[in-house]
């Protein structure tokens, strides 16, 4: 039984190793795919939002500003400023509950409006855009006020000389602008300079939680399926291999002990049936050769006994009993040979064994009785006859 268990253990260990490895590999790939999907979803949302804000800026610069420009000398009209209209549009969007988590900022290090002052994170992004001018967009996850957000940022470059009419030299800037914002901040920009970042962020908590949930569902289902497969394989292994194998082991044990009067149980699988049939044939040929061997020893033992070679006869008869301990005739002959050698105690033991095998045989009772009588143990001799 111990051996069959071990085979099952080996099987299970290999299965667990393969399935465990497969689950870990699948989980890693799946988690990567989910993460990518969540990121792509968030990125498309953030980009739509960022491009919308840019469209507002362009509309203001291209269509509103030319109309209002002539009046800017006397009166400051923030409606003509792209940055202002973009911020206003964002603020009215932000006031709605469903967009309360969105953020949009035109962050610069030196703004007119303090609300546009870059914080540490935005300043770092700006620094990256300055050191990597080829980089036109940065995105990723970021924690803002304790919540996880996905951000997309683009560099804010002074591409048009017209920007410098207000953001360049404060001496040349419209007076109404100086009245409103002072001459301290927002000036001194240069053409081609990266002065800030456009940055939007969208909440990432829900898509990430959804991805995590899908991941755990996947792992759970995969684990249940694999457990079911392992159980099924175990049952199959037990039915088709382990049980027939342990039956055959038991059969081989019977043969090795000289017991040949058993039947092999039939099994389901073709291979095991073939093995069982081979076993049966082997058993039959073992029986045949053992019988042959037994009769050779027995005949030789009797011949030696008749010839008076007691040692030889005893040796041969013992050989018969080694092959077939239940052979009563060989045992009785052995007892007779032992009696003739004067080994009465051994002879009595052999007679008793013969009687155990054939309690009804009167000859054995008679010979044992006579022997015991001769030994002077009359009482026991009479007893054995009862
Ligand atoms: C007519 C003057 C004027 C011109 C021309 C102008 N801006 Fe501005 N800009 C402003 C004002 C005023 C603000 C502050 C608006 C507010 O209160 O949000 C501003 C704000 C900004 C901001 C936000 C940071 C800050 O300073 O508050 C950026 C970025 C910006 N402008 C970029 C540009 C670019 C790029 C151009 C050229 C395409 C440009 N501006 C042209 C007047 C101008």
UniProtKB/TrEMBL annotation:
Membrane-spanning parts: 12-34, 215-237
TPR repeats: 294-327, 328-361
One cellular component term from this protein's GO annotations in UniProt: membrane
Single GO biological process annotation from the record: signal transduction
Keyword Transmembrane: yes
Stretches assigned to the HAMP domain: 239-291
Signal sequence region: none
Designated name of the protein: Nitrate/nitrite sensor protein NarQ
Source species of the chain: Gloeobacter kilaueensis (strain ATCC BAA-2537 / CCAP 1431/1 / ULC 316 / JS1)
């Amino acid at each position: 039984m111990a051996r069959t268990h071990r085979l099952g253990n080996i099987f299970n260990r290999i299965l667990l190793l393969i399935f465990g490895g497969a689950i870990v590999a699948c989980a890693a790939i799946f988690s990567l795919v989910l993460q990518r999907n969540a990121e792509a979803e968030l990125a498309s949302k953030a980009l739509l939002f960022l491009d919308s804000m840019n469209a507002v800026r362009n509309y203001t610069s291209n269509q509103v500003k030319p109309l209002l420009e002539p009046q800017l000398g006397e009166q400051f009209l923030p409606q003509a400023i792209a940055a202002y209209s973009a911020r206003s549009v964002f603020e009215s969007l932000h006031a709605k509950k469903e967009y309360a988590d969105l953020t949009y900022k035109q962050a610069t290090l030196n703004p007119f409006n303090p609300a546009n002052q870059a914080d540490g994170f935005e300043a770092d992004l700006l620094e990256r855009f300055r050191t990597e001018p080829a980089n036109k967009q940065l995105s990723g996850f970021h924690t803002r006020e304790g919540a996880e957000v996905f951000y997309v940022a683009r560099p804010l470059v002074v591409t048009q000389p017209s920007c410098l009419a207000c953001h360049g030299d404060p001496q040349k800037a419209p007076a109404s602008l100086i009245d409103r914002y002072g001459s301290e901040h927002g000036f001194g920009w240069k053409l081609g300079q990266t002065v800030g970042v456009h940055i939007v962020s969208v909440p990432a908590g829900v898509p990430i939680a959804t991805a995590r949930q899908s991941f755990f569902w996947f792992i759970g289902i995969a684990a249940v399926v694999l457990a079911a497969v392992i159980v099924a394989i175990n049952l199959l292994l037990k039915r088709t291999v382990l049980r027939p194998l342990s039956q055959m082991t038991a059969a081989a044990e019977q043969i090795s002990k000289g017991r040949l009067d058993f039947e092999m149980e039939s099994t389901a699988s073709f291979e095991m049936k073939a093995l069982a049939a081979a076993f049966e044939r082997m058993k039959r040929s073992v029986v045949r050769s053992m019988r042959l061997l037994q009769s050779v020893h027995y005949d030789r033992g009797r011949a030696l006994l008749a010839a008076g070679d007691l040692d030889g006869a005893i040796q041969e008869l013992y050989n018969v009993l080694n092959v077939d301990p239940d052979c009563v005739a060989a045992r009785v002959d052995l007892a007779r040979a032992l009696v003739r050698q004067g080994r009465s105690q051994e002879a009595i033991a052999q007679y008793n064994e013969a009687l155990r095998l054939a309690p009804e045989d009167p000859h054995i009772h008679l010979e044992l009785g006579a022997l015991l009588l001769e030994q002077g143990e009359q009482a026991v001799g009479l007893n054995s006859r009862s």
